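Feature request, filed as a ticket because there's no other form

It would be nice if the structure record came with a short human-readable summary line next to the tokens. Right now we just get the raw output. Example of a typical job, pasted below so the devs can see what we mean:
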Amino acid sequence: MRSVILSEDNTCERAVMSTQRKEMGVPQQTDGIVLRILTKAEGLVGEDVPLELLFHLLANYPSCPPAISIHSEHLTRAQSMAVKEKLLKQAEKLLSEPMVHELVLWTQQNLRHILNQLETGSGSEKCTCAAGPTVGEGPWMTLLHLDHMRAKTRYVKTVEKWASDLQLTGRLMFMGKIILILLQGDRSNIKEYLILQKTSKVDVDSSGKKCKEKMISVLFETKVQTEHKRFLAFEVKEYSSLDELQKEFEAAGLKKLFSEFVLGLVK
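Raw output as currently delivered:
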């Protein structure tokens, strides 16, 4: 069995403890890959709960869900089992498509809800876990500002892929040193995008080493209003002047957004 251990900084080791295999129900000699992912999620009182998630991917993955194990010194055995049960149910909904990343994001978003259900004894029929936008909430819009892009070509391709995977539309806009990302889509998908943006090594530092995006800011977010243009696709566009960029915002019904948040970025 080939084993890969991943942490949030993408370090890798060639080891999986036999006790972990046993707890997952994985034989000592078998085909597949074991992924060990270290992450954090919000707990009952808003604290960060360190989590160790183990996924055993068999040869026919993703046609069958992975075996899953949850470890955390901050969770009781009952809490860990509840999280595992919910994850397995979520995995069943994602069959035939790569799901490990989705399951990690789902855990980050829903740990607090699962623990709260366990505390209150509420049933799954009363689940308030984030599985999509609130009924009646409608499409959401977010404007992001990036300080710089060193590995521009790779960065742009990554942003385009994330937008496509999450069914988000909008614009990645370049004007001089100004870099803006305007996203429209389900609010939950935009939240997933922000997690990806902040936790993935999408750029490089001054020495050329891969690094996470630390210089991103959310300028504005709101429910899409009737006066706002609905983008049909996600496009990368470059503008030669501030006037050209302003016309893009005005055409999208975002004149006020431009004057309040974008003009201040011009130095």
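Something like this underneath would help us a lot:
The chain has a mean pLDDT of 79.
Helices lie at 18-24, 77-92, 100-120, 152-165, 187-199, 242-251, 255-262.
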